[in-house]
Amino acid sequence: MSTVSETAIAEIHRVATAIRARIGEIIVGKETIIDLLLAALLCEGHVLLEDVPGTGKTTLARALAGALGCTFQRIQFTPDLLPSDITGLSFFNQKIGEFQFRPGPIFAQIVLTDEINRATPRTQSALLEAMQERTVSIDGETRSLPRPFLVIATQNPIELEGTFPLPEAQLDRFLIKVAMGYPSAAEEEEIVRRSLVPANSTVVSPVVSAETVRTLQAAVRTVAISPPVRQYLVAIARATRGHPDIELGASPRGSLALAHLAQAWAAMAGRNFVLPDDVKVMVIPALNHRLILTAEARLRGQTTTVILQRLLDQIPVPVEGEVA
């Protein structure tokens, strides 16, 4: 690997460490969640956060945008939200006598779509082009979104009344799906302690520029994946397609997501090559939302997470000599 790439990999490791520390000034714990969000960003992917209200999803998204020096917008999804409320619209300006475009909140680098499953399917679909193509088409004109571009969507897995479940096509647009989880007793005590102390500022100062992030995103693709590791991650994805409890397994897009995330995870660790452990870490976040269980499996209380973990235990892992 070239010296330039090795320097970039070292910079990714440095930046990831600095961002983790800077966000830690606001968020207690959640280092793994922060790393997963950074990995998705480096892969130019999007994140679905699924958890109950009050676990810090919005605070985390704001802190991440601040640490990255990126613009941030939050969209509260409701049943009456219109696609134009997301993308923006053209209006006639009487003062100048012509139409003007008023950009919507999607024209930001970090976009938090809160409770995405509360909006109608028509409004949800307004995100599809933006997430996949990084563009928005309005009135026959295609407008590019700022880069880097990351959508962090949240949904409540418990409250289902008045919600519209995300279709498979939209779920597949998310690179990873993760749950924030409740803090430990010590972490929750620290959260309470911090809330009782007057803070000078809750604004997170950037540790890197948005332009640098784009450079690091390109460097991640230079991380090497040896043939045995490549075959290992493909075997995992393919195993989901023949499992008796899975009606719909991971598509080739899932294999690609797993490969790119493993590259990002290795780079964040300061390595320019992927290990099987990098793949293992990313299997559940990358694939659990891409699988559909059979009705019988759901009745038995099976979950995609448990099935993926069993597959990891069963599929042979490449040995060290083969990985090099």
TrEMBL record:
Tagged with keyword Nucleotide-binding: yes
A GO MF term: ATP hydrolysis activity
Keywords per UniProt: ATP-binding, Nucleotide-binding
Domain AAA+ ATPase, first and last residues per copy: 43-184
Cited InterPro entries: AAA+_ATPase, ATPase_AAA-3, CbbQ/NirQ/NorQ/GpvN, ChlI/MoxR_AAA_lid, P-loop_NTPase
Family, per entry: Belongs to the MoxR family.
Record's protein name: ATPase associated with various cellular activities AAA_3
Taxonomic source organism: Chloroflexus aggregans (strain MD-66 / DSM 9485)
